[in-house]
Every structure is written in structure tokens, then in C-alpha cells.
Write a structure and sequence with these properties.
Blueprint: E1 5-12, E2 15-21, H1 31-49, H2 53-60, H3 70-82, E3 88-93, H4 94-97, E4 108-114, E5 127-130, E6 133-134, E7 141-146, E8 153-157, E9 160-164, E10 168-175, H5 182-200, E11 204-213, E12 218-219, E13 222-223, H6 224-238, E14 250-256, E15 262-269, E16 274-276, E17 301-304, E18 310-316, E19 319-320, E20 323-324, H7 330-350, E21 362-367, H8 373-384, E22 390-394, E23 404-410
Parallel strand pairs: 4-5, 11-14, 21-22
Antiparallel strand pairs: 1-2, 3-7, 4-7, 6-22, 8-9, 9-10, 10-15, 11-15, 12-13, 16-17, 17-18, 18-23, 19-20, 21-23
Length: 417
Amino acid sequence: MSATVTLWFNVRPRREALLSVLAGDIYDGTPIWSALRLFKALYYLHLLRRLPRSLRARAASAPDPCRRPARNVLMHARQVLAHAPALRLETAPAALLATRPAAWWNGVLGMARYAAVPQVALPALPRAEVQVAALDGSDEPCEVWCSGSDVLQEGCSAGVHWRADGTLLFAALQLPVRIGTMQVVSREAYAALLETLDAQGYPHLLRVWNHLGEINGETDGLECYRRFNVGRQDALLAQGRGVAGSSVPAASALGANPGAPLTVYALAQRVPPRAIENPRQLSAYHYPAQYGPRAPTFSRAALSELGGPLLFISGTASIVGHRSMHAGDVGEQTREILRNLRALLQQAQAQGAPVWQLPDLHCKVYLRDAGDYPQVRAVLQAALGPQPRALFLHADICRSDLQVEIEAVALPADERA
């Protein structure tokens, strides 16, 4: 038995095109299986509809789609999604970026600059000014997220500056923090961020970076980071967002210079990414109450298939289960982190990601003590090669007994710098 489903696919608001799908062979005698196959076909067609114009045209021009069985329609949808604009990461000092021609900036989604006091003038675009210092001699290093498309939309609302390319959106905001106000400020920051993402049609957070001054400081007996977690979760719940499981993004929360504003920047997309957890660690959103009144709201990693597979690994520390390991031994903490990174790469591969290895990763390494830089770099060179793709930054870690944290991103092979 087979069923025929005809769907109208809006390629352009002012111009409609027909995408007819023959969902043939979706019934195998099991009604539940039939319904699941049909739902999956509808879901991928929904994803196609949300793509930029050029990619929607590619879908509409596919040869004779109306005669494809459902499984081929799903394959075609995945192929079109894979041709979304490819995300590219470039790390360079601000002085070099300032020499780039104006046309080059048309393809930049957003960026983060790491400097205690920025000196170099850069074009006005979504930018996180993170008040931390580089440890490898870099002068105002910048992390620039570039789109494969030069057709970008841009805006600013509720203090959130954003740019988007039709599949991904980069957003950044900063809010001042006074003593004892972190919980309120983090709630306000995330409320503004989520409202902006919803309004622009990019509701699914892929990766979030958070920097807060004096992250381990306490007011009224509660650590600043734990107050941040309460405010973040309050905002997510108020917006009807999940705070556990597959709906939470990859994220990190690190310190910044004393007195620095709360800095939040993020990548979001139109479709949900795939959350990845580490079997060596308890999921952060399930941490027991000893780590604060609210558990941190993030996944260990997030896998996106837009523009080719992208893996964002959250800030990863020397934690096994939920306990900090190797207190006082920064070298062994670094090696424990590498074991966690390997486990995450294996989990991502089990969910369809490429076979990425540690040397494929672009890393950011945060060190509580600047004097630990030579030892940590030596450990990473042994694992990642003599010239690891890593930016070393001086920042406090979310737990006072941790000395180092590493985050990473794995990009498609042809986008590795």
C-alpha cells in the first residue's frame, strides 16, 4: 500500500512553486512506522522551506521530485541542507583585520576580540569585546566567524547586535554588572537574546559564549557563576525553552577582568542542532545541588549539519562524572580534558559526524594562572602537534579548583585554516 502526498512549497513570498512529493512505499503494514516516515518527510520539507532563496531554488529545480519515493526525497533534502553557506573560522590580530578591504567584511557574521583595553578600530558589526588577555604574545586576537554568503541581514534590538545569512545568525550583547546583580543581569541578557532570535526566525541556539567578571566571587554566600546559572535558566524557562536534554546548546562560561560587563555572544540557526553528551561525564544539566541552586544549562557539544558538519564542543574541564579531578596538577588536568575531548569526538562520530581527530580541532584554552602556559602548551603539542590550532587566554574557570578549560570547534575539512 502506498500514499501520495502533494505539498505546496513556497519558494518566494511573491512567487510560489510546486514541490510535489510522492511518499511512496511509506507503509509497511505497521501504522506507526508509516506515520513516522510521513512525518519525517514533512519535517525535511519544512527545513527546505526555511533555507535562503538560492538554496530553495536548488530544491525547486530538482529533476522530477514528484516521482521520488519518500526515502529519496529525504536524501535530497539532506543534500540541499548540506549546501547551505559554509561557516568558516578565522583567528587573526585586530591590526591585521583592520587592513582588510570593505568587501571582505560583507561575509563576516560576527566576531569576538580578546583584549583588556581594545586599541584598534574595526568596522561596526556584531562584536563581543571580551576583557581577557592573550597568553601567547598575540595582540588583540580576534575570532571571526565568516559566512559562505555575502548576502547578510543585520540589525540591533534590545541591545543585541546581530547578523544572519539565511541559515545562521551571530549575536552579541554586553550588559554592565554591579555587585550582587549578576542573577538579574543574566536573566535580562538571555531574555533579550532569545526574543531577538525568535523575532528573526533563528530560534535554535547552537553555541553560546559567556564571560563574566569575578566569576568565582561571592555575594551573600552564593558564587557569581551560580547566580548567573539561576538567571540564565529563569530566562530560558520564561521563554518556554527546555533546560535539559537535546534542546540545550553547547556553551561555556569563563571569567573576565574585574568590573567587566557580562558579555554574551552566540550562534543560532533555524533548525535544531544535535546535542552530544560525554559518557565520561554526568550531563551538566543533571549536576547535583552541591553545584548551586540551578544546574548549568548546556550540552557537552552540539552538531550542526548546515553547510557541512560542524561540531561545537563546550568548555571542557578536568571533570569525570561531576567531580573535579587532579586538583593542583595543571598538566594532568589538561590530559584529562584531552580524554574528554576524545570521548566527545567518538560520540559525535557515532551520531553521523566525520572521523575528526584531536589535531583537527580549533581550540581556545583558558588558564587561571598565566604561569601555567608553558606546561599546558607542551601537553597540547604532544597531543595536537607542534603547532596546535589554539588560542591561549588568561581567564578564571567556573570552579575554583580547576586551573584550565578547553573549548573547541571542528569544521568541514575544506574549511580548516
